[in-house]
Amino acid sequence: MDDDKYLFNIVNIANTYINLGHWPLHFKMSTLIIIPKPNKVSYNFPKMFCFIIFFNILRKLIEKVIKERLQYQSIASNFIHPNQLGRLKQHSTTDIDIILTHLICLNWVKSLQTSILVFDITQFFPLPNHQLPLILDKASFDSRISSFFSNYLIDRKTQYM
Known about the structure:
Layout: H1 2-20, E1 29-36, E2 49-54, H2 57-76, H3 93-109, H4 132-138, H5 143-152, E3 157-160
Parallel strand pairs: 1-3
Antiparallel strand pairs: 1-2
Helix pairs in contact: 1-2, 1-5, 4-5
């Protein structure tokens, strides 16, 4: 019972931030801890260290609610193509593996060969964060969501320990 009450409050907080188009400064702060990897001859390169970033727990819970809402609206508005499976709720890359395996086996039965071209779409959009509000506007999302993400993406800071 208490879990439902807490979840209800977190959803209300997330909705309030979206409706106001505001993400509080204390949620924009993170703490970075740098730990040297053991047994390295030299520590002249960043890959010789482990980087651990800590965020406020309430922030992570609210961001999860916002992510779920954004995903729901993306699917409901047909913004995401039905064949896009990765990182969607109740979909996985395992689903696409099963589909591909099925298609390849069907082609084998017909004595056909199958080729697959795979690429990482994130490489086409190296800095999508600054374009996110524009993308959301073009996709006809509620203007409050675009406004929220415009504020969400600015004035972020990381302190080092």
